[in-house]
């Protein structure tokens, strides 16, 4: 059969990370290429206990169809939880539960983008969401990044593209893939500039709770008086990604439209997951759960940073995240990054080439992403030693 795929599908180029992901099953590989939370943080006992409870006492409540906007007790608990970080969910906001935060980007693109519309993004950014925006026919335009977040003059220039971009996608906390956190000044400036040019902001915050050093910075959503911010929260990184529970927050007109598209996507998110998530938020010590995550990630990040400082050639630059799961490593000009990543893989260390995260994946890139939440401490030490030797081979 000759399958006749749509242009939208055909435009999705295979990710350069594909080869690496294909090797993920190899047990001898040191995987700095993952993006998963540390599995030892999952509250498995609680998930088992609450699953047994609900399936024993009221099975039909989770086995029947549910509401597209989500299970109301979960939405109430999630509102309380999100507002620990500031005024994220206002009384005149609407909040819905989605199947992961990835679905929010997909639905938003479907709601606001026509074929060929522009969407701005931090460059580099999370490839899952970038692909989702591309698959909806929009053109991605990247905005340069600096050590404290997006480059404001580049942003202002790109906000003036005609026709006006439909939205900008930002990850202000411990960005995937760079680990960079946007400063408070920049968050305010991004908000003001987007307000000035009438551009929506998709603020994706899956890592915000995972701060192991420095001071928390309020979300852009907390100073949104105009209804231009769509806030995406996720429980993937603080409970478990397999439950696929996330929340979209914003003004009812836009969140209502997202809900309509979500209905066509999957009718509603799995009720079982929402009930489990609600039980965990309502009855478990979330501070202790988050503290446990911060301890695990903070310790692993420290080992990775210390080992990079000891082993890497001095011309190699890398970010120093205050939270999250990722470090962005940049090789000096003239070094062939793809060759470096290829040789690392031959030496059993998997990295993700930075090109995968660019708005325009045909652009040159000197960087690669490393994850520190999944590998063991021993693997971090061993893997960085291997990479260190390679940096001395490649960098003069
Ligand atoms: C920045 C970012 N946004 C969204 C997601 C998707 O998360 P979810 O599991 O909530 O769909 C990820 C997953 O790694 C991510 O890194």
From TrEMBL:
Signal sequence region: none
What GO annotations for molecular function exist for this entry?
Answer: transaminase activity
Question: Does the record's keyword annotation contain DNA-binding?
Answer: no
For this protein, the record's Pfam families field holds:
Aminotran_1_2
Q: Which keywords accompany this UniProt record?
A: Aminotransferase, Pyridoxal phosphate, Transferase
Which residues are in the Aminotransferase class I/classII large domain? 29-384
- Gene3D superfamilies for the chain: Aspartate Aminotransferase, domain 1, Type I PLP-dependent aspartate aminotransferase-like (Major domain)
The lineage's top-level taxon is Bacteria
Cofactor requirement: pyridoxal 5'-phosphate
| Record-linked PANTHER family | AMINOTRANSFERASE (PTHR42790), KYNURENINE_ALPHA-AMINOADIPATE AMINOTRANSFERASE, MITOCHONDRIAL (PTHR42790:SF19)
Question: What protein am I looking at?
Answer: PLP-dependent aminotransferase family protein
Tell me the lineage of the source organism: Bacteria, Bacillati, Bacillota, Clostridia, Peptostreptococcales
């Amino acid at each position: 059969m000759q399958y006749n795929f749509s242009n939208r599908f055909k435009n999705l180029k295979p990710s350069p990370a594909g080869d690496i992901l294909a090797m993920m099953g190899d047990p001898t590989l040191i995987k700095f290429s993952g993006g998963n939370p540390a599995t030892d943080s999952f509250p498995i006992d609680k998930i088992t206990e609450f699953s047994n409870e609900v399936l024993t006492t009221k099975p039909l409540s989770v086995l029947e169809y549910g509401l597209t906007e989500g299970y109301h007790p979960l939405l109430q608990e999630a509102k309380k939880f999100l507002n620990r970080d500031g005024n994220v969910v206002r009384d005149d906001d609407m909040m819905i539960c989605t199947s992961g935060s990835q679905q929010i980007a997909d639905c938003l693109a479907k709601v606001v983008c026509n074929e060929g519309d522009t969407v701005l993004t931090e460059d580099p950014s999370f490839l899952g969401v970038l692909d989702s925006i591309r698959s909806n026919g929009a053109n991605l335009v990247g905005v340069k990044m600096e050590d404290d977040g997006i480059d404001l003059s580049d942003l202002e220039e790109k906000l003036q593209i005609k026709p006006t971009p439909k939205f900008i996608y930002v990850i202000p906390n411990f960005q995937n893939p760079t680990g960079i956190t946007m400063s408070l000044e920049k968050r305010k400036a991004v908000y003001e500039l987007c307000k000035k040019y009438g551009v929506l902001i998709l603020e994706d915050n899956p890592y915000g709770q995972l701060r192991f050093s420095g001071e928390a910075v309020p979300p852009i959503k907390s100073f949104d008086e105009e209804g231009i911010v769509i806030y995406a929260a996720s429980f993937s990184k603080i409970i478990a990604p397999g439950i696929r529970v996330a929340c979209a927050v914003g003004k009812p007109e836009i969140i209502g439209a997202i809900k309509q598209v979500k209905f066509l996507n999957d009718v509603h998110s799995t009720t079982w997951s929402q009930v489990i998530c609600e039980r965990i938020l309502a009855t478990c010590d979330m501070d202790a759960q988050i503290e446990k995550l911060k301890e695990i990630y903070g310790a692993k990040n420290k080992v990775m940073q210390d080992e990079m400082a000891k082993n890497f050639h001095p011309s190699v630059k890398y970010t120093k995240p205050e939270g999250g799961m990722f470090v962005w490593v940049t090789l000096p000009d003239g070094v062939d990054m793809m060759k470096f990543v290829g040789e690392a893989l031959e030496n059993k260390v998997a990295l993700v080439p930075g090109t995968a995260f660019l708005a325009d994946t045909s652009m040159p890139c000197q960087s690669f992403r490393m994850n520190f939440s999944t590998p063991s401490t021993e693997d971090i030490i061993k893997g960085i030693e291997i990479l260190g030797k390679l940096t001395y081979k490649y960098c003069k």
